[in-house]
Specification:
Blueprint (H helix, E strand, L loop, with lengths): L7 H9 L6 H8 L6 H9 L6 H14 L9
Length: 74
């Protein structure tokens, strides 16, 4: 067992994913072991399914920050 310190905002973010699980379970479910693409894909597969509204909000956020490539990259 280890003790960690979190900012209030990090704690709130982690707690919002808890849904009846322990913090350790949330971390192990959401954060893949370092260094393997298979673990990263497995972690993505463990993410909860997004509602249509949440998907639209995520897509809009991505499109908002997406910048066109400079002409040299086209």
């Amino acid at each position: 067992m280890k003790t960690i310190s979190l900012t209030e905002s990090a704690y709130q973010r982690l707690a919002s994913w808890k849904e009846g699980r322990t913090f350790s379970q949330v971390i192990e479910r959401m954060i893949p072991p370092k260094g393997t693409i298979e673990a990263a894909f497995e972690a993505v597969g463990n993410l909860p399914e997004l509602s249509a509204k949440d998907f639209d909000e995520l897509e809009n956020a991505v499109n908002t920050v997406r910048q066109p490539l400079p002409t040299a990259w086209s």
